[in-house]
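Weekly puzzle thread! Below is a chain. First person to post its structure in token form gets bragging rights.
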Amino acid sequence: MSVMKRLSGIVQAKANKVLDKAEDPRETLDLSYEKQLEQLQQVRKGVADVATARKRIELQAQQLQTSATKLQEQARQALAQNREDLAREALGRRASIATQLEGLKSQHDQLVGQEERLVATTQQLQTRVEAFRTQKETLKASYTAAQAQTRIGEAVSGISESMSDTGLAMERAQDKIANMQARAGAVDELLASGALNDLTGSSDPLQAELDKGSKSTQVELELAQLKGQIAGPAPAAVGTGAGADAAQSEGDSAPGGEADEEPATGEPVDTSAPATGSSDMFSLDKGAGS
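Winning reply:
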């Protein structure tokens, strides 16, 4: 039983909270004003009903009063004609009408008193309704002003629901931008360090073989230059013509032989060690004599 009571209390509390959140005081005031107008209308209708009943009694009394006057005249005429029996009958009917008039008078007095009380109640209720209407409009204006001021304050301070959503969207956008910038910087560093292959390179197998052959040729050329530097300058060749060319060829082909090999520019080969203070520490020296 206690569990059911607690559950009922929780449900009622939540329902009250939801209703309180959805309730608009201005609508509640308008509804109360409409109910008071309905009550005032019912009271006015009651006054009209009592007044109608009073008026009917008054009309009925007038008719009875006319009948009593007529019977009085008939009794006088009967006595003038020495018809005492007719005069007695007329006076008896008149007496009955008098009794009815007394009953109608009593009902009329009650209706008059009830009508006066209803009229007074109607006036009081009318005054209350008018006062409530003035107070209602004042409260509605105050609530509207307070609501507008609250919304403006929330918008300025940024704590309203719409401004909060905008702020969250901006924060998410800033976070995404920061993540993208960090990712771009990390990828650039990895590409510069060689940890990642350049995906923009050619994927053509033929081009890859050609590049490989070019690198092999360059390596052989550098190796020949290094051999020439280690062997030193060759002695002057004797003779000319084919014999000299043959001697030169034999000197080049002999193992451990000395060959006077010059670069393509025609300048003498520099046998000194290459400079170590290169301006570009990441570039590869293609040849000692270059």
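Puzzle host: Confirmed. Bonus trivia for everyone else. Residues 47-152 form one domain.
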